[in-house]
Design goal:
With 318 residues, the chain is of the alpha+beta class. It contains eleven helices and nine strands. Helix content is 40%, strand content 21%. The mean pLDDT is 93.
């Protein structure tokens, strides 16, 4: 079967680049074929709903009514996919915990709206990384300090543990580099302060201490100086070179080949996170092109385009 090119292949963002870095073969299954596990991941949907609540608070302040409205926005969207009977299974990432912790978040950061003007929320578009390449981006919010006039992006991230591994994973990430590059293209290098990770950590707590759910809200400031911004730019173009080479090789491969000579397997990533959903395919298929005539059981075909998300408020083509 011939694999037909799709327009979504040309929409490259930091998420796709990070997936390619983790494992090129996983990238092939996920973004070239569009195969995704046919199940809702609570972590991902909870994070999306948390983003909605955070955006509401940024735009409407931290009053009691705004907190209640943010919670209702979270709950109504979360319940679209996860009914009440699943709460015990997914605790503490459930609406009841969010109802309890949103007032604490707003109390911890009660001076946010005195310190920053909210310029934009949910900004998406494309930004050049060389003369002939665009990278797609989506930024949670862009803020300006009332004291210094400096610009930062505040990015909402959820997690299960506020440990060094969780904190350090952002500092050199492709995504944070993209945020930094976008802000410097819009406002100029001297105007940008940092990228701020607005963390929300939800854990079950220590039963020995009588804890029933535990949450905390760390913020991590990540500045990028000029030489490191240039380093990111070279790095992203190197990865894009390799991605382009694999795409060209893929279009020359056929189902008659003994193996698919593109998108190599990174066999050190098979057990990352919850385990790779494509591992069984990699164990049994030397040439996946021989098996693409039908989407496997337990998967759906869905070609993701980050610019098509309904939550985008502002679009920029830089």
């Amino acid at each position: 079967m011939i694999l037909k090119p799709r327009s979504t292949w040309n929409t490259i963002d930091s998420t796709k680049i990070s997936e390619y870095q983790r494992c090129p073969r996983s990238y092939f299954f996920k973004y070239c074929l569009g195969w995704r596990a046919d199940s809702d991941r609570n972590d991902l949907w909870f994070g999306s709903c948390w983003h909605m609540a955070m955006e509401h608070l940024l735009l409407n302040g931290y009053s009691a009514q705004s907190i209640l409205d943010a919670y209702r926005l979270f709950e109504s969207n979360y319940r679209d996919r996860f009914p009440e009977y699943t709460d015990d299974m997914y605790f503490p990432k459930v609406p009841g915990v969010v109802l309890r912790c949103l007032p604490e978040y707003c109390g911890q950061y009660k001076h946010d709206h005195d310190e920053y003007d909210v310029l934009y929320t949910e900004v998406a578009g494309t930004v050049p990384v060389d003369d002939n390449r665009l990278v797609t981006f989506k930024i949670d919010s862009i803020l300006r300090s009332r004291r210094t006039g400096k610009i930062r992006s505040r990015e909402h991230k959820t997690g299960k543990s506020n440990n060094r591994v969780w904190q350090d994973k952002f500092k050199l990430s492709m995504q944070v580099g993209t945020y930094d590059h976008v802000l410097k293209c819009i406002y100029g290098p001297d105007a940008v302060d940092c990228i701020e990770i607005n963390g929300a950590i939800f854990s079950k707590g220590d039963k020995r201490k009588g804890e029933v759910g535990k949450w905390e809200f760390p913020r991590i400031e990540i500045p990028r100086y000029a030489d490191m911004s240039n380093d990111w730019l070279w790095n992203v173009n190197q990865w894009l070179d390799w991605m382009d080479t694999d795409m060209e090789r893929m279009l020359m491969c056929t189902e008659d080949d003994a193996c698919m000579r593109c998108f190599p397997k990174n066999t050190e990533s098979c057990t990352d996170f919850f385990g790779c959903p494509y591992m069984d395919f990699c164990l049994t298929w030397a040439n996946p092109l021989q098996h693409i005539d039908q989407v496997p059981i337990g998967f759906i075909e869905e070609h993701w385009n980050p610019l098509a998300e309904e939550t985008i408020r502002t679009r920029m083509e830089l």
